[in-house]
Amino acid sequence: MRSKSSAERRRGIALHAALVPLALIWLFPLWMMFVFSTLPENGIFSRDIILTPSDQFVENFNLLESDTGFIRATTISILVAAAYTFLSVALTSMAGWSLACYRFAGKGVVLATILGTLTLPYFVVVIPQFIMVARDFGLHNTLFALIVPPLFNSLGVLFMRQSFQMMPHELFDAARVEGVKEWRIFFFIGLPLARPAVAALSIILFLHSWNNYLWPLLINSKPAMMTAPVALGSLIGLTKVSWGGIMTGAVMLTAPMLVLFVALQRHFVAGISAGAVK
Amino acid sequence: MAAVSLNNVVKKFGTMSVVHGASLEVADGEFVVFVGPSGCGKSTLLRMIAGLENITGGEVVIGGKVVNDVEPAERGIAMVFQSYALYPHMTVEQNLSFGLRMTGNDKADTQRRVGRAADILRISELMQRRPRQLSGGQRQRVAIGRAIVREPQVFLFDEPLSNLDAELRVQMRVEIARLHKELGVTMIYVTHDQTEAMTLADKIVVLRAGNIEQIGRPLDLYDDPNNQFVAGFVGSPRMNFMAGTVVESSSGAVTIKLVNQGNATLKKPLGGPLPAVGAAVILGVRPEHFGLAGRGDSDITVKVDVAEHLGSTSYVYANAGGGEELVIEREESRHEASLDQMTVSLRATHSYLFDSAGLRLR
Predict the structure, then answer these.
(1) Staple B329 to which of A6, A131, B273, B287, CB 3.0 to 4.6 Å?
(2) Residue A171 and residue B51: Cβ atoms within 8 Å?
(3) Is the confidence metric ipTM above 0.85 for this complex?
């Protein structure tokens, strides 16, 4: 017993000796991002490598706000990400539910098509999507164009389908025998039981929208409709790059996501690994 | 309360047929058990009665009304599932009332029905617990309670006791029998456990590979099986089968030679058509129908493999070569079972004869 515990301790120490440096390597750029967000321009480009934060964060933020309207852009980002996450979770879980729970003609074709779209690179889709939304429908520079076109999410559909499929279907049959309507079975039994999957998918979708750069850049040309990543990107000018502002913005965009992830990581891991073991 | 009839019911999944024209009458208030091995279609048949599976052909009639295209909830049935199917995120009380709440039932009536079900099943003190906080037996009670609150005309049970341990299974079996007596409603019960079928049923329906093999009262099936399958399936330990050949066939009796039992012969009177001399037949003898040596119509000597002494009775697992394993029940002279070899007698009146296709020769 004693030898086992000391062997375990040794293994723990060895594991930490390998993992802690790796974690530090991963954290280093994040730390430098934070340090740069607190330095004046001349500090960022000084010959010495500065590893400790300074006191210019507020100045950098004011610069960022005056150059890009960062608060408004962040507000739009939050709005878009929240709406996108809510709507996409609703759509993907309903699609996943129907694929997991019902027999219908052409189900195999639908599933194969959804799987097939996974093999298409985003860049193949984005130009036709842009032409359709901007030219054909004339919806550029609208919140609708930011939220709705990316809503279809094949990975989300498959993820939710898997989650519903793993549930004992006798639960749904029991409700059917009791006369409960199909949408109520989905809403009151399927969805509550899929909570870990919904939580994990929500985080993935929120992050996806929050970090999305290309689509908002393409579809919106008005500064008033910029999302936060596009606003940060606009600081990279032809003649001048405002690194202090970019780093301050990056810190402000990253920090809430880190907090969110840490707060929800239990759900996230449970959702991702659900079904891995019985 | 309602009677249930199945008229030539067929079920196909794609091109694969799983139930090939089942016909059956279940009287009002009767307890009918569908029994058969895994994959025989008994659960599919139950799910068709419940409305959870479409009916490919034939008709299902409940309470005098054809219900082929009627929604499960409109059929006046309630179902108890093998896995209990309790909603894990709801308390016992919410589980019991869920269906009624979702269908807009009156609140006071819902409360009354839930209270009544809880009283009948003695689960009132569990109402605020969630399913994971309940034992297997308690979960099963809640699942039955959920069926009771619907106040159905027909109860459907799909292998409800198969997830319970042996002791609890006996206890719940008695509870279900009590419930049937108390409520007096029609119950259809699916199981692969012939002991459950024998103890609970007013009428047993034996199924094999999507066909109804025989319908009858438990003891009728036991005493008078129509074929080798039913004879083997009903009764525990199962009936012994010995291969034989007809050596004489005349004047209302056949004499058969048991080819794997030292060529012992047995003369058995038959009322129906006699098989031809030389025909292959199978002799069936229940474990309790082997007699003491010299007291029957023919003796066979077998080699004892293992003997199980259960106190009041002993089971001897024996063989006489030819790959035929026999189970012999011994109430008298139990110590004989400890021998390496024993001789037992066969009686023509306590044996069954089947033709090579497994059909009973009477």
Answers:
(1) B287
(2) no
(3) no
Q: What is the DSSP string of A34-74?
A: HHHHTS-HHHHT-SSPP-S--S-HHHHHHHHHHHH-HHHHH
Would the CB atoms of B98 and A175 count as touching at under 8 Å? yes
**Among A271, A168, A277, CA closest to B131:** A168
Measured over the CA atoms of residue B33, residue B38, residue B43 and residue B45, the dihedral's sign is: negative
**Which residues on chain A are in Cβ contact (under 8 Å) with B50?**
173, 177
Cβ B85–A184 below 8 Å, yes or no? no
Residue A179 with chain B: CB contacts under 8 Å: 71-74, 99, 102-103
CA B226 to chain A, closest CA, distance in angstroms equals: 35
- Which residue from B210, B182, B172 is spatially nearest to B34, judged by alpha carbons? B210
Chain B contact present for A107, CB below 8 A: no
What single letter denotes the amino acid at residue B199? T
The 3-state DSSP class for residue B98 equals helix
* CA dihedral sign, ordered A99, A100, A104, A109: positive
Report yes or no: A179 and B99 within 8 Å, Cβ to Cβ: yes
The SS3 assignment for B333 reads coil
The C-alpha atoms of residue A232 and residue A249 are separated, in whole angstroms, by 7
Within 8 A of A178 by CB-CB distance, chain B residues are 73, 78, 98-100, 102-103, 146, 150
The DSSP line for B180-237 is HHHH--EEEEEES-HHHHHHH-SEEEEEETTEEEEEE-HHHHHHS-SBHHHHHHSSSS
Residues facing residue B80 across a β-bridge? B157
Q: What is the β-pairing status of strands B291-292 and B325-330?
A: unpaired
B21: tokens are 């024209």
CB atoms within 10 A of CB B350: 15
Least Cα distance to B2 among B59, B67, B81 occurs for: B67
pTM: 0.81
CB contact under 8 A, A175 and B99: yes
Nearest to A159 by CA among A83, A112, A89: A89
| Three-state SS at B353 | strand
Asked whether the beta carbons of residue A181 and residue B102 sit closer than 8 angstroms, the reply is yes
Q: Is the peptide bond before B237 cis (omega within 30 degrees of 0)?
A: yes
User: CA neighbours within 13 Å on the CB side: how many for A107?
Assistant: 12
Length of chain B: 362
Q: Note down pLDDT in tens along chain A; length 278 residues.
A: 455 688 889 999 999 999 999 999 999 999 999 998 898 877 777 777 888 888 888 888 888 888 888 899 999 999 999 999 999 999 999 999 999 999 899 999 999 999 999 898 888 889 999 999 999 999 989 999 999 988 888 999 999 999 999 999 999 999 999 989 999 999 999 999 998 889 889 988 999 999 999 999 999 888 888 999 998 888 887 777 788 888 899 999 998 888 887 887 777 666 665 544 43
Contacts of B144 in chain A (CB under 8 A): none
Burial per residue of A234-252, b for 16 or more beta-carbon CB atoms within 10 angstroms, e otherwise: bbeeeeeebbbbbbbbbbb
